[in-house]
Input
Amino acid sequence: MDKEIDKHVASEVSKNLMDAYLSVENATRIIQARCSKDEFDGFRSEAGKIAGGLYLLLEPLWRAYPDLAPEGLVMTQPKKKERRRGADRQD
Output
């Protein structure tokens, strides 16, 4: 993302997506407490997909603005892949 989004906008989007994540987490706890194990297992599986999708949206924002990431989550810039010498060469 390389700070393409204004920090104020990124902050607002991060807050909204984290609220969505917490809603999914709370819903999962309700299902766990009030439904059968099979219902919970099915719900948890789908909730995990949603949580993963939310992370995919949040991660670039947090990399661009690490101070927006939740406390304790350290966001570093990804390492550039080193290109091996001769990797493109065909013998």
